[in-house]
Write a structure and sequence with these properties.
The chain is mainly alpha-helical and 127 residues long. It has helices spanning 3-16, 32-51, 59-69, 74-92, 96-99, 102-122. Helix 2 (32-51) packs antiparallel against helix 6 (102-122).
């Protein structure tokens, strides 16, 4: 298996193992598992940007602010924030030579874009 493929599998594994996700929705009506998945993808992008010292908009912080504005339960927001920090910490322990590649950035950026689209769809915003 190539190093690139191994790293993609590793990131997918980290995403899948980033803590138990609650199934259901909170008082605001948002699916908490979807919110966690969106935050995870944004945390991967942010973690990679921090590790690789790459200038990138901080979509994760904007997402967390949106959750507050959407009146998502504070306990859900706290759990999502903890999972996001955990994900970024895991990425920070990786070797930059394997993470800071154009292919990895392309993959992370695509996932972040898809996550932001899913977030907009959850809120009824269409483009």
């Amino acid at each position: 298996m190539s190093r690139f493929a191994l790293m993609l599998v590793s990131l997918a594994f980290l995403t899948g193992c980033s803590g138990e996700r609650e199934v259901g929705s909170d008082a605001s009506g948002h699916d908490t598992a979807q919110l966690s998945a969106i935050a995870s993808d944004l945390a991967i992008q942010k973690g990679m940007s921090l590790l690789c010292e790459r200038e990138q908009p901080d979509h994760l912080s904007y997402f967390m602010a949106d959750l507050r504005q959407e009146s998502v339960d504070p306990a859900v927001r706290e759990r999502i924030a903890e999972e996001s920090v955990e994900m970024m910490n895991k990425i920070s322990t990786e070797e930059p030579e394997y993470i800071c590649t154009p292919e990895m950035f392309e993959s992370a950026d695509l996932r972040a874009t898809e996550a932001l689209i899913a977030w907009d769809e959850m809120r009824g915003i269409t483009q």
